[in-house]
Amino acid sequence: MRLIPDPNPPRLRVLWVSLGAIAVALLIAGGVFAAYGLSPLEAYGTMLRGTLTDWKGLSEVLRRTIPLLLVGAGLTLAFRAQFFNIGAEGQILMGAIAGGGVALFLPLPPALSLPAMFVAGLLLGGAWALLAAWLRSRLAVNEILSTLMLNYVAQYILIYLINGPWKGQHVRGFLYSDEFAPYEQLPTLPGTLVHWPTLVLGIALALALQVLLTRTTLGYELRVVGENPGAARYAGISISKVVLIMALITGGLAGLAGVGEVAGIHHRLLEPAQISLGYGFTAVIVAWLARGNPALVLVTAPLMGLILAGGDLLKISLNMPFRVIDVFSGVMLLCLIASEIFVRNRVQWRGR
Amino acid sequence: MEEIWNALSRALSFGTPLLLASLGAIINERAGVVNLGVEGMMAVGALAAFAVAYGSGAGEGNLYLAVVAAALAGTLLSLLHAFASITLRANQFVSGLALSMIGLGVAGLLGKRFEGFPLFNQAPEWPFTLGAVLLALVLAFGLAYTRLGLVVRSVGENPGAADALGIDVLRVRYLAVAFGGAMAGLAGAFLSLAYRPSWTDGMTVGLGWIAVALVIFVGWSPLRAIGGAVFFGLLYYLQFRLQGQSGIPTEFFAAMPYLLVIVVLALAGLRRVQGAAPEALGRPYQRGER
């Protein structure tokens, strides 16, 4: 077997390799289920039946798609610039904190409340990513480690707030803030938890980022920085500026997702694990699957939304530990990046 | 005096898993491969050790078996990373991240049945600590003065030249990654057999990530890793010590180690430790590129 480099792979091959990687991942995860003592067929059957067969299941998929769409679209940019932001989880939480803070403590006219919450979330989420980007460009701090550590820090900030100064007046033993006022809550599709304004925002932003990436100077600079930093330097592109702006956008979108979760579903600040169910990590796969195209996230986010909603069903109806999601995500991610070689190379089965 | 002695001994104890794991990571990074999967391999090692120790009944010999099982489990998991990043030339950073997710996931899933079980024959801590310190000395000497050390370093610094000299680059890298996995597994065994003889999901509490950061902080030197591990161990000790006594909220102390990792990495950046990084670190090797 020989591999022949192919810098411009045909789209069809990209599709087949991606599907193949997903199939292999499902096989491996099935093996782990079997080791746990559960028939893989039963597990996958439960996941599919509970998500695709009725409107209730579909709406659960859709609700999980919303944050994945926002975070994933942002992360495609980050990965395009070779900035491995693994800290979306923390950026989501900081967004939720900022949005929640505005909702709870900033007396605003009702019409301005929700927009202000989103803006605050955008800014704080962005700032959280910006910190890691700045540390990388100034002090060469590996962003995977720093963003990951900042996840833990964000968690503890949130716990501190809901356990201390922002703890609700009437919640007694629980770790909650007070409930947001009705005008600070996002409308949902009837009978579901699908907060549609955030969904619309996510779709619009994914498309906008695609335009930004392919049609603007900043997008061009970003692509050059990611593909060939040497050339970027030669062309006079400020790498650190591009990375900083990109981090701001990426973290900002994660922040918006955080606001969406608290304003659309929970209507209060609560424990970190309940605000983000691993969206930050799953979105890494969403972005990777989309291969750097923000618009493609419109396809890959629902796919991973399905897996998250399905994993939830495994937890509830088959009583599996929450780690089942980690197994899924990790195996999927590994298979995807390992299959990359078959995208970038043509396989020739017989030697010359 | 007793206070200082106590602090130091606790620092060594906290630092032991860090030292074990970072020694493994130092060797596999010296050979040019970054593995961010330490946290996951540690979790799997901890579970394997506990499962074997518990499953083989109450006796004395089974602790050895448990330690071996932990090293094996870590090694097996690390081979996934080796295959993806060395053979298939996948992005090492992302592959390691995936490995951490898999390790934590598998350990949490398969370990559920062991949650809350007691382990009666607790392992002593000192053999792990002593072993780790001795190994650091051996590795420091080996890297600097032996042929094998030279081979590992050359594969990490200039794989093309190493290949030209007839060194099997891929095989050396595989072995180095396997070693890293075994050491992370042992670090896990320390946690579940000696430090807190039990199994709970999430018992690695980010120690694996801190071990990875430690490698950068100590400039890829096994000797300095001893100091680094004791330093972090001391911080952990202080964190527990100060937690109850001050008016500062506990969440602040809980976030401390993670903040410190960032500070430590920034300090390493200020000191330009990066210059000490193996030249080919993080880059897959492909024959014919030279």
Helices and strands in order:
The complex is a heterodimer of chains A (352) and B (290).
Chain A: E1 2-5, H1 11-36, H2 40-52, H3 55-80, H4 88-105, H5 110-139, H6 143-163, H7 196-215, H8 217-227, H9 229-234, H10 239-266, H11 272-275, H12 279-289, H13 297-318, H14 324-338, H15 340-344, E2 345-348
Antiparallel strand pairs in A: 1-2
Helix pairs in contact in A: 1-2, 1-14, 2-3, 2-13, 3-7, 3-10, 3-12, 3-13, 4-5, 4-6, 4-10, 4-12, 5-6, 5-10, 7-8, 8-10, 12-13, 12-14
Chain B: H1 2-30, H2 38-55, H3 62-87, H4 92-110, H5 126-145, H6 147-157, H7 159-164, H8 169-195, H9 207-217, H10 222-243, H11 250-270
Helix pairs in contact in B: 1-5, 1-8, 1-9, 1-10, 2-3, 2-4, 2-8, 2-9, 3-4, 3-8, 5-6, 5-10, 6-8, 9-11, 10-11
The share of residues in extended strands of chain B comes to under 5%
Largest sheet strand order of chain A: 1-2
Order of helices and strands of chain B: HHHHHHHHHHH
Biggest pleated-sheet summary of chain B: none
Cα gyration radius of chain A (Å): 21 Å
Specify the overall morphology of chain A.
globular
- Provide the low-confidence segments of chain B as ranges: none
* Count of extended strands of chain A: 2
- How far apart are the termini of chain A? 9 Å
How many helical stretches of chain B?
Answer: 11
Share of helix of chain B, binned: over 70%
- Radius of gyration of chain B over alpha carbons? 19 Å
Q: Which oligomeric form is depicted?
A: heterodimer
- Summed over residues and divided by their number, the pLDDT of chain B gives a mean of 90
Average the pLDDT over all residues of chain A and give the rounded result: 92
What does this structure look like?
The complex is a heterodimer of chains A (352) and B (290). With 352 residues, chain A is an all-alpha fold. Chain A has 15 helices and two strands. Chain A has a two-stranded antiparallel ribbon with strand order 1-2. In chain A, helix 5 runs antiparallel to helix 10. The relative contact order of chain A is 0.21. With 290 residues, chain B is mostly helical. In chain B, 72% of the residues lie in helices and 0% in strands. Chain B has helices spanning 2-30, 38-55, 62-87, 92-110, 126-145, 147-157, 159-164, 169-195, 207-217, 222-243, 250-270. Chain B starts with a helix and ends in a 20-residue tail after the last helix. The chains are: A mainly alpha (352), B mainly alpha (290).
